[in-house]
Design brief:
Layout: H1 2-13, H2 23-44, H3 50-56, H4 61-90, H5 96-131
Helix pairs in contact: 1-5, 2-4, 2-5, 3-4, 4-5
Length: about 130
Amino acid sequence: MEELFNWLVERVIGRVDGPFNFRFYLQPFMAIVLAIRDGRADAKARHAPFFWALFTEPDNRGKRIREGWKSVRRVFWLAVVIDLAYQFLEMPQIRPLGAILAAIILAIIPYILIRGPVNRILTAVNRRKNSE
């Protein structure tokens, strides 16, 4: 596991230049755009912030996870494919688990980090508009 972590830091996170460097910008950008869209929808529907709701609403947890996965799955699989292509072209061996971890870092984490705050900000803005 330590070898995989070292590989991840060296080859995935540490390689922001060179071939396939667009993945470090494109994949988080796409995930953030989807998170903003879904956060706006959450605010409009008056849902609790996404990540918070996973812990505080056990009855809706499965539904929210499926909904989030449905939104971000294409970005995730694109990240996996691009990373595997990078590994095939630039590295001596292919590590599918490394590609999955890179996809989690580049797609899933930005989505989770942005969706809830967008919901909270828009909910606060809407409350302020309604109270005036």
